[in-house]
Amino acid sequence: MVSAAAQAGVVAACVVLFVPMGLAGWHLSRNKVLFFSGALFVSLAVGVHLSPYLPSVPHLLATSFFVPGPGAASAAASSSGSSCVPFLHRVSWSDAASAGSSSAGAAANGLGGGTARTWSWPPSLASACGFARLSRDDASLLLNGSWVMVAGDSQARLLVLALLRLLLDPAAAAAAEPELFRRHSDYRAAVPARGISVDFVWAPFESNLTRLLREDLRLAPRVPDVLVLGSGLWHMLHVTDAASYGDALASVAGAAKSLRSPLPVPPPHMFWLGLPHLVNHMLNTDAKRAHMNGTMLRTYDHEVDQRGLVRGDGGPFLLLDVGKLTQGCGQHCTADGMHYDGEVYDAVLHIMLNALVIESQQRI
After folding, report:
1. Rounded to a whole number, what is the largest CA-CA distance in the chain?
2. Whether residue 127 sits in one domain with residue 43
3. pLDDT over threshold 80, residue 246
C-alpha cells in the first residue's frame, strides 16, 4: 500500500513537472533545443525530489530477477551466484528404471541396499540457477590442475569413490576401488591428462583433522585447492558425548581458519561432509544400536551448526548435507543403516562441484 507521504509526493511532482513544461512549450515552441533542455532540467529536479519515495535500483533488479518455482523450491537467479547456493541440496529422489553403475557398485561392496534410486534437481531450479550434472570432460576441466583432498572416515571414502567414478573410465575406477577400500589406510590417485591429484586421508576422529590442518598441511609446500573434511561417526560410537564432539569441532574450525589466513595464494575451497541419516534397527552391532540413535544424531548435528564450523555459523566450511540427502533417498538405499548407495554420494559430489562452479566465478 502506498503511504500518504508518497501520494502527496507524486501529486506535487506532477504539478512541478507538467505546469512548467506546459508553459515552456507555449513560450519556447520555436526553440526546440531550449524547450528540451528545460524539460530535461525539470525532469531531473522531479527525480531528485521523488527519489526518497522510490525503491532502490538494486532492489528493483533483485525483484526483477526473482524466478518463482513450485512451493519452497523457488530460486533467485540474480547476478550473484551465491544466492543459489542455499538451493543446492533441493534434490528430488525417484526410482530408477535400472541400477546405475554407482548404485550397483556400492551394493556389490556391501555399501548400499541395491534398490535403484536416482536424483535430480527440479527443472525450474536447475534452469534458474544453472545446476547440472557434470560429464567426465566437464568435471575434468573444472578440476584441471587441482589437488583435491578428502579426509575423514568411511563416508569420506565413499565420496572419493564417487569422484573417481566420475573422473576415470569404468575400468580404471574399478581397478582403483580395492586400493581405496583398504581398511584404515590412506589413498592417492591421479588423472595425469588433466594434472588432477586426489588424496584420501584416513582421519576418523576430529583430532586427526586438527593435526592435518595445523601440522601436515602447514609443512606442505602446497595446500589443496579443494579440501573436504568430515567426522563424527567414530566419536558417536566410541565417545558418545555431543559436548565433547562440539569442542573438537571448534578446534577443527580454528585450525581451518588459521590455515587460510597467512596464505599468499587463494585459500582452499573448504567443505564439511555432514553425518548421514542413521537407520538404528539396521545397524550391525549392539554397540552401534545403543549409541548411534536418533537422539544422539540430532545432538551431534546441533554441534555442527553451533560451533563456528560451517558458513551459516560464520565458519570456513560449506556444509555438504549428507543427512538430508540420505534421508531423502530412504532406508531402501542402505544395507547397514549407515553407508548408502553410490547414487547418494554422486549427489553429494555434484552439489560440491556446482558449488565450486559458483565460487570459482565469484573469485574471478
Report:
1. 98
2. no
3. yes
Same domain, yes or no: 55 and 147: no
pLDDT at position 263 is 60
Q: Is residue 224 part of a domain?
A: yes
Sole residue written with cell 581397478: 175
Quick one: pLDDT at residue 19? 53
Q: Which domain holds residue 156?
A: 94-363
Mean pLDDT, residues 340-347:
98
Whether 21 and 152 map to the same domain: the answer is no
Q: Are 236 and 291 in contact (CB under 8 A)?
A: yes
Statement to judge: residues 49 and 161 lie in one domain: no
Domain count, the chain: 2
Residues 277 and 329 sit within 8 Å (Cβ to Cβ):
no
Q: How is the beta sheet containing 196-202 ordered, strand by strand?
A: 187-191, 196-202, 147-152, 226-229, 269-273, 318-320
N residues, the chain: 364
d(CA 216, CA 186): 14
Q: What is the 3-state secondary structure (H, E, C) of 141-205?
A: HHCCCCEEEEEECHHHHHHHHHHHHHHCCHHHHHHHHHHHCCCCCCEEEEEHHHCEEEEEEECCC
In a domain, 80, yes or no: no
Residue 92 has pLDDT above 90, yes or no: yes
Query: How far are the Cα atoms of 169, 274, 280, 292 from residue 284, in angstroms, in the given order?
Result: 33, 21, 9, 11
Confidence of residue 84 (pLDDT cuts 50, 70, 90): very high
**CATH number of the domain enclosing 234:** 3.40.50.1110
State the pLDDT confidence band at 343, using cuts at 50, 70 and 90. Answer: very high
* Residue reference for cell 556391501: 110
The pLDDT of residue 286: 97
pTM above 0.70, yes or no: yes
Residue 148 · residue 198 · CB < 8 Å: yes
Looking at per-residue confidence, does 7 or 116 come out higher? Answer: 116
